[in-house]
Amino acid sequence: EDLFTPEINTSQIPDPTTVSVQATDAYDQLKVAAILEEIDGKSSDGSARRPVPAIFGMNFQSVSVGQKLVNPVLSCARNPKPGNCDPNYVPGGYEPGTLAFTPQMEQAMAYVDGAIGSMLRELDAHGLLESTEIIVSAKHGQSPIDPAKLRKIGDPISTILTNANVQIAQNTEDDISLIWLTDQSQTATAVAALQADKNGANTGHIQAILSGDALADQFGDPRRNVRTPDIIVQPIPGTIYTGSKAKVAEHGGFSEDDTHVALVVFGSRRGDERSADRVVASPVETRQIAPTILKFLELDPRALRSVRLEGTRALPALGDD
Predict the structure, then answer these.
(1) Dist CA 321 CA 315 (whole Å)
(2) What does residue 245 show for φ and ψ, rounded to 5 degrees?
(3) I want to staple 182 with a disulfide (CB 3.0 to 4.6 A). Which of 3, 42, 154, 169 is the partner?
């Protein structure tokens, strides 16, 4: 029970972590170092002997920053004084119309690739690689992948609702808008105002509005759970509700770019063709990772309440499904 998860703006890194890929790499490396110590049979800080954990892992932030950051020093859009920026600088993410990495994204991916490689080498050095199942995935993608589709439009959703005399308690926005109302009896009025904008000038770049039973079926009833927003607005893909010059992509929404992420499983339980790389073409979801981990540990996935409630299955084609 030695989980090392320092905050991303930890004081152990001298600069604010997300101002550059290099600073984010340094933050991620703190966690990589802890994993390597645990593989070596030590506590995460290396100060004491400990059994190698049955399950361990970490989250990388480098690729997320590499996908969306506009560097505050190198970018002439953010640092416009002559001689202070690089006119050839390209923001993070991907080249227009392709999946080719920009230099910033390439740097982030190269770091993460090397960091995961260091874990594999350490496992191998201790004779643990053959008995270790490795899952690499992502919590979310970033939208838009194609920078040509980017539209940063500020906060028109709040304006639409305010003009309809709807009181907003909280509006959390990235490439989605999560709206909590001060008075839930105004939900229908709010939805009508948003729908009118969508059908008219569509200043909010609205693609879909989720409320009522449709929202409750997926996320719970906001009348019974204060953590659930009263309304969710999914904008047209490529839209970010911000005026910030600091980023060219965001996450949180339901678009293809947000929800289609990598999922790689490596280890001894990949079925009969253990020596061959395979692609499973059937649809899967990241929520299937949790019951898969329990199966790897020879525990009952139904011990997880979410598995019992939602019927979530372990990932297919792993030899014991």
Answers:
(1) 8
(2) -90, 0
(3) 169
pLDDT digit string, tens, across residues 28-72 = 999 999 999 999 999 999 999 999 999 999 999 999 999 999 999
> Domains of the chain: which residue ranges?
17-140+256-310, 151-240
Tell me the per-residue pLDDT of 231-285, one tens digit each, with 9 for 90 and over: 999 999 999 999 999 999 999 999 999 999 999 999 866 554 544 677 888 899 9
Average pLDDT for residues 189-215, to the nearest whole number?
A: 98
Inter-residue contact 27 to 8 (CB < 8 Å):
yes
Would you say residue 188 has pLDDT above 80? yes
H/E element holding 233? Answer: strand 231-235
Residue 152 CB contacts under 8 Å (≥ 6 apart), including other chains: 240, 242, 243, 244
End-to-end alpha carbon distance in the chain: 29
CA atoms of 35 and 122, how far apart (whole Å): 10
The two tokens of residue 131 are 């008995």
Q: And the tokens for 132? A: 């270790």
Nearest 10 degrees: CA dihedral of 274, 279, 283, 285? Answer: 70
How far is 195 from 290, CA to CA, in rounded Å? Answer: 38
